[in-house]
Amino acid sequence: MNEEKTPFIENLNKQQTSAYHQLYDEYYKVLVLYAINFLSSQQAAEDIVQELFATMWEKKMKFLSLPSFRTYLYNSVRNASLNYLKHQNVESLYLEHLANTYREIIEEEDTNEEEVYRLLFRAIDKLPTRCREVFLLHMDGKKNEEIATLLGISIETVKTQKKRAIQFIKEQMGTYYFLLPLCDILYSSKFFS
């Protein structure tokens, strides 16, 4: 069966922007609604459809006919939605596994807060001098600008030294690092600003 290419498909194959505008106008909302049937999340559905359109443009996709084009769109959205759900499920299982692992560590070793802090400060003591100075000033509540002025270094150096300190402390403390009540502070976006 030989199906003719419509002007829309021909223009899409030539990567004419007008065809991509038409693609967006005619298919975006419909495909988002189709993806929502799988995902129940409008944001995730929109992301999937936008990614599909971007991929079509980047790979300079060519289509033989309008029916094959539509089949491609719906199959791609369905597959991407199912992959998204699989990823969410794997991520959820992983987080559950982590929570159970650390709960077991706490129960098995009966770790108390003082021990965790002892390990933290032992790790801080092992930091290189400048890195330790920056980190301790940060723990005292100083802002990056204040630390930079006090130590006569750039703000970027302060940020770099704080990142290095966290990485080193994380390595030194191992699984105990995740027991720190300070974790939220250490990972907050304010920490790296």
UniProtKB/TrEMBL annotation:
Classification via CDD domains? Sigma70_r4
Domain RNA polymerase sigma factor 70 region 4 type intervals = 119-167
Q: Which UniProt keywords apply?
A: Sigma factor, Transcription, Transcription regulation
Q: Name one Pfam family in it.
A: Sigma70_r4_2
Q: Does the keyword Transcription apply?
A: yes
Q: Which family does it belong to?
A: Belongs to the sigma-70 factor family. ECF subfamily.
Q: What is this protein called?
A: RNA polymerase sigma-70 factor
Organism name: Bacteroides difficilis
